[in-house]
Amino acid sequence: MDIAPLITYFNNYLPLDEAEQDLLKTRVTEKKVKRRQFILQEGDICKHYNFVLQGCFKMYGVDEKGKEHNIQFAAENDWITDIGSFHSEKPTKLYIEAIEPAVIFQIKKVDLLFLYVNCPKFDRNFRIIIEEKFIELQNQLLRNFSFTAHDRYEAFLAQYPKLSQRLPNTQIASYLGITPEFLSKIRNQIVSK
Amino acid sequence: MDIAPLITYFNNYLPLDEAEQDLLKTRVTEKKVKRRQFILQEGDICKHYNFVLQGCFKMYGVDEKGKEHNIQFAAENDWITDIGSFHSEKPTKLYIEAIEPAVIFQIKKVDLLFLYVNCPKFDRNFRIIIEEKFIELQNQLLRNFSFTAHDRYEAFLAQYPKLSQRLPNTQIASYLGITPEFLSKIRNQIVSK
DNA sequence: CGAAAATTTGACATGACTCAACTGGAGTGG
DNA sequence: CCACTCCAGTTGAGTCATGTCAAATTTTCG
Predict the structure, then answer these.
(1) Is B100 left (phi over 0), alpha (psi -120 to 50) or beta?
(2) Which residue of A has its CA nearest to B176?
(3) Which terminus of chain B, N or C, has less C-beta within 10 A?
(4) pLDDT in tens, B111-147
């Protein structure tokens, strides 16, 4: 197994020296995931931090009426995990599902704790990573408050041009908090301008 | 200046030993804030991590139409900061304003970095703190997607019983993403049941 | 190729907003 | 202790953004 992509990823933060890379290597496992396969379902306890090597995932909750609401996508070089369930070790209310055939690296909780304890750099790196995710989430919340559906869609296209081509509109609609039908009408509007 | 409340706060995470407490003490300053006073305004660069000792703050963005949208409250023993601006050192789009007369501790960026470098425990603690905030933010986003305004209000009352008594309904409405008028109608409904 | 999923379209329904007017404290100053 | 202002909260009528449901059409992928 070659964890080079993960090493490269960490080079964006505090790069790992060789010893740290070796440490990491022993704590990571690889997993292939088929399209529409779940790596987390409601009721599960989230056991892993998941790093996407290839493919694309969505994380979503399901409301009383059975509707899915996407709160995050993750493609190459991104993390996707229900941090709440991972830390509390309580059953999750979320689903993580592959939108495309995928390959991921997984780190178990004991292994992550091992890394934290044996190398503070991981504390640092994961602190920074989650800070970035926090900022993004906060922006998302603010956009949902203050933007119209139309503007949220255009903001999404602008921010994730590549992702928005890979994803079915249904999934984008769910992420924007609207119905696929309404997104279709928005797209129609934009085109006819 | 007595930083005991902050020490006590950290005891919920990895407690600080005496040396670490002394280190912290030299890096923290106290500040009194009047009602309606801002500690951050659009265009500022967010210079501090703020820890609330007394009083209550709101953080909000303003949309094109001039409407305020609260994304966070912070009362005693909570942090409030625009992490995005703090890290990027770019002008913020957010406001942080005291809803009540308040006292806060502030940590400057250089001082926080100093703490991180000299004591990995701070990396750890702030990682955990922000993880908790991330989880809360994610729940908030999910509720905004999948709950009706009525249910969001009741969830807010249940989750923050004390805060909801301190806050004017106007502010709660803004946090829930609805108008004060509509919140009033919801409250009317609830009472008349 | 064939089934399942995604997209589009249209008629109609509704949750939440807007705006304006009214009510009722909470301070403030005289 | 009154008169006055000033907010926060309430109410109602009309409107708008977005949702619902159903049907037709196209695309995807197994």
Answers:
(1) beta
(2) A145
(3) C
(4) 999 999 999 999 999 999 999 999 999 999 999 999 9
